Amino acid sequence: MLMGLTFLASGTGKILAKGEVPAQILDFISNAVPAIFMTPTIIHFLINIFIPHVIPWTEFILGACLLIGFLPRLMAILSLPLVFAFLGTNLWTITRGGYATCASCFGIWENYFGSLTPVQSLIYDFALIACATLIIFFHPGKLLTSRQWLANLGRRQEVATASKPEAPRGADRLQTLGPKATSWLRLIGQKVRQHPHVASALGLLLLGLIAYGVIVASIGTSTPKDTAGWAQVATNISVSEVSETSAVISWTTDKPTISSVEVYTQDGSLTIDITEKKPVTTHRLLVGGLGPGTIYYFKILSADKKALSPEHSFTTLSPEPLLISNVGFSYVTESTATISWGTNRPATGKVEYWEAGSKNRLTISDDKMTTTHSINLAALKADSIYYYQVQSTDVSGNQAISPVLAMSAMIGKEAPDFLLNTLDGKPVTLSNYRGRVVMLDFWIWTCAACRKKLPIIQEVSTRMPPDKVAIFAIHFEGNEAVIRNYVTGAGLTIPVLHDSSAVVTNLYKVYVFPTVFLIDSDGIIRMIDPEFNTAEELENTLKTMLGDK
Questions:
Q1: H/E element, 325
Q2: Phi, psi (5° rounding) for residue 97?
Q3: Same domain for 300 and 260
Q4: Were both Cys, which of 13, 24, 176, 497 would link to 109 (CB 3.0–4.6 Å)?
């Protein structure tokens, strides 16, 4: 049961994650397998087929078979290579000090229940090996024997097939339909008498479902009444001067009349009824007290409330959206900082922040309604990169949320110099690129998020002038031959620097991947992890640093 549930949960989680590739498995394979075998074709097969599809479906099938008792000894034997592979992966990650990338072992379930540490996963692997050993050596059946109820099910079907008389045809079936229905009703009556509580619960559930269906059908959104059959006496109907809370409705009649306007919302409830004071042929009424961004329906009525027009509609203007601007931070000390921003109208403020690589998110709120916001953060680690996001809410409940931004004591300071070789063996010294904007992308080829960003960076590198912008991808540790094979298979042409000893990665205090640094022409770090999802967004960020419009 434990093995079945584990494999079923792991397999379904990865399948529902829609092809997510656990990076630690790729790390383990790339370090355990000789580099000569890690060709671009093998890497493509691992990333796109074997890990995201073959392994999850194998786990799912093994888990389902173990749960229902289908050939349990054989399934236990087949599961051992998979468990030993997971055990080796966890042992390897423990020797490295934990998972180095943003991977997911249990797919989508980790978003709801959290993830295991490598040590916890290792203990769990030993428990699965023990369960498999017990099933293999102590299961009473033979290798190809299923659980008794499955075996009996097969026998019953064979007996039933052998003893089943020839099926009646045509009119015979109609004649036997009545006795069969009576037999079923009697059987249901016996079950009800044997289990009255279960029958009552099922009856109440059925009644509840029926009641729910009736209520949903009756409360559905009603539509305003169709007035197409009314004689159209009012003509030239128009709506003008529409604002967030009002509108002017105009029309004409063929003779002087005292008319009124009935305005209501989509659910048919009356909102407002305005009547003229004297008979006229050219009518104009201001309707106020309306809500912003709402569809309203209206009819022109006579003095005795008869419709003079079919139904018309208009939509009030939506309010100006709440906007956040000038988001920034400043360090007061090494462990305290201030986040500040502005809004276009009074609103509350809230800051959510977290350390890079941590799932623990902290929140500080300020309920004061203001357009200038400032919130202080304390107990920060001096050598860490933090991410933060600000949010404001106005008196009407409208919200505005900023992009995720990075905060570090390194921003505004000179970028640490370094010397690294490209995969082609060419030395690159950062200080030699003074006078140019420099982009450093710290990455690992086994990280899915890293692979997603690289094509964008590659495209932008072809658009930016090389005498003004220099882009480098710095790979953290790893086997150089495997990295080269991946770069070749992916068609990357940007310079890839190999930080084989993690010296530069530690110098820049990078603990999660990918992490991007933008350095201005004076060698000063200006941004960490700017948000971009398209080549245009990254290009605009670099042009802003260059001073281009």
A1: strand 324-331
A2: 90, 20
A3: yes
A4: 13
Domain end call among 407, 439, 457: 407
Select the more confidently predicted residue: 171 or 529: 529
Pick the closest to residue 486 from 22, 19, 29, 41 (CA basis).
Answer: 41
Host domain of residue 15: 2-148
188 shares a domain with 131: no
Nearest by Cα to 530 from 447, 446, 462, 437: 437
Q: Percent of the chain beyond pLDDT 70?
A: 77
CA 502, CA 532: separation in Å to the nearest integer? Answer: 26
User: 400 and 453, same structural domain?
Assistant: no
Same domain, 338 and 370: yes
User: Identity (one letter) of the amino acid at 126?
Assistant: F
Regarding whether 508 and 468 lie in a shared domain, the answer is yes
Q: Please state the φ and ψ torsions of residue 217, each to the nearest 5 degrees.
A: -65, -35
In which element (H, E) is residue 487 found? helix 480-490
Count of all residues that appear for the chain in the document: 549
- Residues 402 and 423 reside in one and the same domain: no
For residue 473, give the H/E element and its range. strand 469-476
Query: What single string gives the DSSP state of each residue in 188-225?
Result: HHHHHHH-HHHHHHHHHHHHHHHHHHHHHHHHSPP-PP
Report how far residue 411's alpha carbon sits from residue 89's, in angstroms, rounded to the nearest whole number. Answer: 36
**Which DSSP symbol is given to 17?**
T
DSSP codes, 501-528 = TSHHHHHTT--SSSEEEEE-TTSBEEEE
Mean pLDDT, range 275-295, rounded to an integer: 87
Q: Kindly indicate the confidence band of residue 239, based on its pLDDT and cuts at 50, 70 and 90.
A: very high
250 CB-near residues (< 8 Å, 6+ apart)? 236, 237, 238, 239, 240, 282, 283, 284, 285
* DSSP bridge pairs for 349: 366
Report whether pLDDT(133) > 90.
no
| pLDDT at residue 21, rounded to an integer | 62
Helix, coil or strand: residue 73: helix
pLDDT digits (tens, 9 = 90+) for 178-218: 565 566 566 666 666 666 665 565 555 555 444 444 444 44
pLDDT given for residue 400 in this prediction: 96
Query: DSSP letters of 281-317?
Result: EEEEEEE-SPPTT-EEEEEEE-TTS-B-S--EEEEPP
Positive or negative, the Cα torsion across 485, 488, 492, 498?
A: positive
